[in-house]
TrEMBL record:
Name of protein: DNA polymerase IV
Superkingdom in the source lineage: Bacteria
Record's function text: Poorly processive, error-prone DNA polymerase involved in untargeted mutagenesis. Copies undamaged DNA at stalled replication forks, which arise in vivo from mismatched or misaligned primer ends. These misaligned primers can be extended by PolIV. Exhibits no 3'-5' exonuclease (proofreading) activity. May be involved in translesional synthesis, in conjunction with the beta clamp from PolIII.
A Gene Ontology molecular function term of the record: damaged DNA binding
Subunit field text: Monomer.
Pfam family, any one: IMS
Subcellular location: Cytoplasm
Keyword Signal among record annotations: no
Its EC number(s): 2.7.7.7
Origin organism lineage: Bacteria, Bacillati, Mycoplasmatota, Mollicutes, Candidatus Izemoplasmatales
Classification via Gene3D superfamilies: 3.30.70.270, 3.40.1170.60, 5' to 3' exonuclease, C-terminal subdomain, DNA polymerase, Y-family, little finger domain
Cofactor names: Mg(2+)
Cited InterPro entries: DNA/RNA_pol_sf (IPR043502), DNA_pol_Y-fam_lit_finger_sf (IPR036775), DNA_pol_Y-fam_little_finger (IPR017961), DNA_polymerase-Y (IPR050116), DNApol_IV (IPR022880), PolY_HhH_motif (IPR024728), Rev_trsase/Diguanyl_cyclase (IPR043128), UmuC (IPR001126)
Record flagged with keyword DNA repair: yes
Originating species: Candidatus Xianfuyuplasma coldseepsis
């Protein structure tokens, strides 16, 4: 018999880098700690909660952090240490579920539906939290919900050492009052534009009834975001979500860290163009687009999106690359960027069913035009010309 509900945990390590340092040296536990920044001009990767009480935060300059907290202890990034503790973290989680999806080095989603049939989810969460604290000195916050989106939102509601249950029936009370920028998936580029529409909270987004205006900001994801604002998310946990099989990709490590948004988008555009050229030369089309971002503290994220249809269009793939980056921006300086495409098939086997009501679908003639535009733009090294809209 099919289960009528799921129990999903999102478990997030609190101030992970600082927690690792305190786990190694307990004498640091009651002291203000900042990680990163080798000089006063350096930038902090993170800070522990003692330092945060003084207003110290990630992406803050060391000079400003020391002004706020003169006793701040600055420690260098030690990625080998963080990797070791990350393995300990996921090793404990694997004792409770076979279905785990790593969000990053310090967070993961677990499907706890099976175990919850014999043990209350709150008891499981308490046990995991206490074990990580006692065995490895790692504090975590845990969100418990019927889907991945709500579990992620719940884990952010109480830090450090929080456990939050977020049911669909609690969404209007617990989630709707939150500022729109607190909604997972709404990037730093997006929420200012939503505020221009008068959308200041998650509840405002859920109840906003002008789909046209929302579409100007959210594109074709209006329904997805409004569904999530109501607490709906049909995704399932996929342990191999970010494992590519056959793929085409390019990445670049930069001698100087990248800070500025436009510079980062420019680099992603260059990488996307190279990937699309290789894709077209391979006479293939792709359905899944992935970006890789490695920060100057050597932490890394991989984010993917699978389209409904395959494509080898530069502009279609670039739009997804930009969207993936916008939704996962961090204040940390970037050392490496990568773009790849996967889920490939031969171009000759690709047929798209045209819908007479979707007048913007790209026909073979349109694709030929786009390829010419790509060639022109490549020759000039920038997007100086684009396809216009039909009147």
């Amino acid at each position: 018999m099919e289960k009528k509900y799921r129990v999903i945990f999102h478990i997030d390590l609190n101030a992970f880098f600082a927690s690792c340092e305190m786990a190694e040296d307990p004498t640091l536990r009651d002291k203000a700690i900042g990680i990163g920044g080798s000089s006063n001009r350096g930038v902090l990767t993170t800070a522990n909660y003692v330092a945060r009480k003084y207003g110290v935060s990630s992406a803050m300059s060391v000079m400003e952090a020391k002004r706020l907290c003169p006793e701040l202890i600055i420690l260098p990034v030690n990625f080998d240490l963080y990797h070791t503790y990350s393995e300990k973290f996921f090793s404990v989680l694997s004792e409770y579920s076979d279905t785990i999806e790593k969000g990053s080095i310090d967070e993961g989603y677990l499907d706890m539906t099976a175990l919850s049939e014999t043990m209350h989810p709150l008891d499981i969460a308490n046990e995991i939290q206490q074990r990580l604290l006692k065995e490895h000195n790692l504090p975590v916050s845990i969100g418990i919900a019927p889907n991945m989106f709500l579990a992620k939102m719940a884990s952010d509601m109480k830090k450090p050492l929080g456990i939050t249950i977020l049911r669909k029936r609690d969404v209007s009370e617990k989630m709707w009052p939150l500022p729109i920028e607190k909604m997972f998936g709404i990037g730093k580029k997006t929420y200012p534009n939503l505020k221009l529409l008068g959308i200041r909270t998650i509840g405002d987004l859920a109840q906003y009834d002008d789909a046209y205006k929302l579409g100007l900001v959210l594109g074709n994801r209006v329904d997805e975001f409004q569904q999530k604002a109501f607490g709906h998310d049909d995704r399932t946990i996929e342990p191999d979500r970010y494992v590519d099989m056959k793929s085409i990709g390019n990445s670049q490590t930069y001698a100087q860290d990248l800070y500025e948004y436009q510079d980062i988008i420019g680099k992603l555009t260059d990488l996307t163009r190279k990937v699309v050229q290789r894709l077209q030369a391979d006479e293939s089309v792709a359905k899944t687009i992935t970006i890789q971002v490695r920060y100057n503290d050597f932490t890394q994220i991989n984010r993917s999106l699978t389209r409904e249809h395959h494509t080898d269009s530069f502009y279609e793939i670039l739009a997804i690359v930009e969207r993936l980056y916008d939704e996962n921006q961090s204040d940390k300086p970037i050392r490496l960027l990568g773009v790849s495409v996967s889920n490939l098939i031969d171009s000759e086997h690709f047929f798209r069913q045209l819908n007479i009501f979707q007048m913007t679908d790209i026909t073979k003639k349109d694709e030929a035009v786009i390829r010419v535009l790509d060639d022109i733009n490549e020759a000039y090294g920038q997007k100086i010309i684009k396809k216009g809209a039909k009147k």
